[in-house]
Design goal:
Elements (H helix, E strand, L loop, with lengths): L5 H11 L1 H11 L6 E4 L22 E3 L7 H4 L3 E3 L6 H5 L7 E4 L6 H10 L4 E5 L5 H12 L4 E5 L2 H8 L3 E7 L20 H18 L3 E11 L8 H11 L1 E3 L10 E2 L15 E3 L9 E8 L19 E3 L2 H11 L11 H4 L1 E3 L2 E4 L10 E5 L1 E7 L2 E4 L1 H7 L7 E4 L1 H9 L3 E2 L6 E7 L2 E9 L2 E4 L8
Helix pairs in contact: 1-2, 8-9
Length: 456
Amino acid sequence: MLNLPAEFISKYQKLLGQKQAQELFDAMNQPAKKAFRINTLKEQREVSYSLNQPIPGLKNAYYGQINGQDPEAISGLVYSQDPAAMFPAMIADIHPGDKVLDLCAAPGGKSTVIAEQLKGKGLLVANEISNIRVKALRENLERWGVINALITSASPEKLVQPFTQFFDKIIVDAPCSGEGMFRKNPEAISYWSQDYVMTCQKRQKDILTEAVKMLKPGGELIYSTCTFSPEEDEEIVSWLVEQLGFKILPIKVNTSAVESGHPDWANNDPAIKETLRFWPNDNLGEGQYVAKLQLVEREKSTSTKVKKRKTHQNKAKLTSSESALVAEVLKPFNLPLELANWSTSCLVSQNHVYLPAIEANNMHFKIISNGLELGILKKKRFEPSHQLALILGQRKQKQVVNLGKEDYAKYIHGETIRLESALHGFVLVSCQNCVFSFGKITNNVLKNFYPKGLRK
């Protein structure tokens, strides 16, 4: 039984009335909803989990709990996510070729949805200011097989300089008081107060003030929170319209398990009814609020551009000898179209060979990764990256060793595997036909290339 603060109970009794408030409180004491999505970037989409309970209004999303150590999860075929939290990135209606910013991106659920919609075309900038949480963001985007992402760890104001009026769409899943996650994370109750709600509102306004500077005229902002608080939801949307030049757009979702926003909880703008509220008592997922807005067309910025500083980042094209080393490793594999021109497009930085998602010399903040890292050049050899294995695993391959469950458990623990195989050299390693790593076969021994930081 959740120990909800008296101030919280009183607040929602006033907002919702006694009956609906009690329905909310009762739902918050029920088990949290578990769900997962299937990665549509992969050609092979068969999973061992039941698909008997699809989530209404979403494609390739199902109720059920996955095991994070199963081959489907390790390979990036499935992703565990709260059902309601799946909607904001879907609502964004992103198209291949768009330039999209996921401003508060960790752990990566929304970024993986964005990447699926982009289909390897355009650009995803996935930003997370927390040095700890950005590691999970990178791991999840690598598992998902995302090839066109720039992953950054910076405050919003630092992103503005290279990205002024740059993005077609920006998703801000804002830091909030987390009321909608109380039953999933009861610890969040301990730091809730009305003062904390107002602190969150101020932080959200600060973030959005910078975000709007990076949106193209006519571009779209998807604003979401996992809280019920009108101060962080309808009031923020009213503020975006009144102060930052947005208009509210209608949202189409194919489910009745949602409620419209409440104009009377803000400035009585009837357009707020176009925003969406997800309540636990609607039995879809956890609490969520989503609004879709468009920046009213205005003239392009005429402010003086900041002069680019010269940088010395020691980045260069591949030499012919380096290219030959990479080509020898890649030759047995079926490459995606995005890698067709790797030999002329790749850059080398500190012996790391990568295909950049964007030219980054004028970006003076922490870049976690830029595009696809193919691997690392070592003395007279090339070692392919874990990220490349997961990209190649999206397509059918012949240079693959498929392990049984027992050998799979040993491999992700870091052990070498003795086997009989006609293959040699670098191979993709899979289990249940889910590619999750590189390996190297020498004398019937599969040398382990599963990253040490991921081993269990």
